[in-house]
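Batch 3, record 17
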Amino acid sequence: MRVDFTKMHGLGNDFVVLDARARELPAIDQDIARALADRRTGIGCDQLIVLEPSDTADFRMRIFNHDGGEVGACGNASRAVALLHGSPADVETAGGTIRVEPANDGASVDMGEPRFDWDAIPLAYGMDTAAMPVGWDGLDQPGAVNVGNPHVIFFVPDTDAVPLETLGPEIENDALFPERVNVNVATIESRTHIRLRVWERGAGLTRACGTGACATAVHAMRRGLVEREVRVTLPGGDLTIGWGEDNRITMTGPATESYRGSFDWSDFA
Ligand SMILES: N[C@@H](CCC[C@H](N)C(=O)O)C(=O)O
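Prediction for the assembled complex:
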């Protein structure tokens, strides 16, 4: 069976998108997702995105990390999918229903409400998620936020000075995080600007992480360090993140389609 795909990007965070809304695809499992995401032997991407029909929203977006694991949210892919869909839509994800609206070569996304309870992150045991009494090799007192997926956030003087290639996997796999975690290191540049690098669960260092930007901005807002709308600069570019009076997070930024192609399902099954 030949399957069409679209290669898309959100600030250099790249996706292979399969559209199974009109034409059903064989079941996607972790092995196929990992094989398609492989940059040497597959198509290559940080996340595989599968669009399917939904009973509760306009369509459903499934998200598989580079390592094949299925997860609840992907901010950059949400904007890419908005661009592909071409009009405003409610999108069901495993992390909740979000609303996407294409805008100016990208999209604006209502990412829903953040969760701060320790068991909603989830953490292995109870603690204050605004200032956690834990640390790893010089990274101390992080915050944790779930924005459809779990994030831990450290404020540091210089994001480039943090060895995320080694500390990222160590923290991602720490027993404190039973579902593993996305690791964010951020510098508050001003009350309206944050600089951010992210070690993504299941994908490693990426050029940008939309949910990381949302989680980091909301944590900084919760701590009173920034205004309720900020610019977040990642290695791949900038996002604007707002946290409204209605408790909902809005993310705005670019997305692009780079090419379309097709592959034989049997090569990966
Ligand atoms: N790149 C994404 C996040 C993808 C999922 C994440 N790695 C997880 O495991 O939760 C984004 O832009 O948000």
